[in-house]
What we know:
Layout: E1 6-10, H1 14-26, E2 30-34, H2 37-46, E3 51-55, H3 63-72, E4 81-85, H4 90-98, E5 103-106, H5 111-122, E6 133-136, E7 139-142, E8 147-150, E9 153-155, H6 159-170, E10 175-176, H7 178-186, H8 195-208, E11 215-218, E12 222-225
Parallel strand pairs: 1-2, 1-3, 3-4, 4-5
Antiparallel strand pairs: 6-7, 7-8, 8-9, 10-12, 11-12
Helix pairs in contact: 6-7, 6-8
Amino acid sequence: xxxxxxxxxxxxxxxxxxxxxxxxxxxxxxxxxxxxxxxxxxxxxxxxxxxxxxxxxxxxxxxxxxxxxxxxxxxxxxxxxxxxxxxxxxxxxxxxxxxxxxxxxxxxxxxxxxxxxxxxxxxxxxxxxxxxxxxxxxxxxxxxxxxxxxxxxxxxxxxxxxxxxxxxxxxxxxxxxxxxxxxxxxxxxxxxxxxxxxxxxxxxxxxxxxxxxxxxxxxxxxxxxxxxxxx
Length: 231
């Protein structure tokens, strides 16, 4: 008999949790409900689920705090997290994804959309891994040490911007569309607006300072990392 994928629902509103659980059962999933971070951790300690549905607003630890905690834990870091929230603004989505969520769905949502998102993260293709050291001119990215330096000075670069820079530096002088960057950096299991890429490119340029000019905007096409920009 085929094992039903286990879905941990971390949601403090019983009516919403029960509605999700009923629909999951009817579609071949095994739901487990936790109403807060403490009970969710207890469930995780007992059995690792296949997917976590994590509400943003929870009593005690918020969904963002829990996502960061579970991503930092070697045992739970690879479990897909789908953030559920009424916060639909782009900065909130970026914050959720930066905290470690694999996907983001805004309340109210349809059952079919939720099921599609869950199936997508289960069959996900992992994004390109960050590894080795790569340098372009005086800009150096050391993946093992998770450091970026320009002319010998260390730069403060966020985790998503780090992965974005790593990909761009390994594929210089090419134009990458926003959709391509989403697939390669975030992974093709993520359902977010392409404009989110613009937010992270802006942050990356700010982090790079003078070296930010290396990331060129190609109007109507996307972005390109070009060493010629400093020539």
